[in-house]
Amino acid sequence: MRITKRTNIAIRILMFCAANPERLVTKSEIAERCNASENHLAQVINQLGQLGFLRTQRGRNGGLMLGRAATEVRIGDVFRSLEASVPLAECFADVDNTCPLVEACRLRLALADAAEAFFAHLDEVTLDSLVCGNDRLLEILAPATCRS
User: Fold this and answer.
1) Longest alpha-carbon distance in the chain
2) CA-CA-CA-CA torsion for 103, 106, 110, 113, nearest 10 degrees?
3) At what angle do helices 107-123 and 75-83 cross, to 10 degrees?
4) Over the stretch 72-106, which tens digit does the pLDDT of each residue have?
5) pTM of this prediction?
6) Beta strand 54-57 pairing with 63-66
């Protein structure tokens, strides 16, 4: 299974917010620390906000933060929300499906079962478990400090 760039960026955003829970973070901070373009981030932030994973605040002192506690964010939910519309194989596509085997192919069912097992495994992983106690990650995602 291949994860889309959108989902990869979404997890980076959520981890950044979880690593900085006491404040609003900015899109530019995330872009710098997570090696992502602000344009990609804007689209993903908007989607995560609509899904309730993030709270956003516009304006001069705006930014974003988690929409719920990191212990309540299940990675399987994030992946399912962002990847569900991406067909696993051609036969899962509503349009552009030219496979003549669809009606009789058992691989489609096996792939659907495998995808559900994948998501179910990620349901056991919380955002908190990815960030808390991960000192190296926290160093990477920590805000820049002044060095005199």
Assistant:
1) 69
2) 50
3) 140
4) 999 999 999 998 766 566 566 667 777 787 778 88
5) 0.85
6) antiparallel
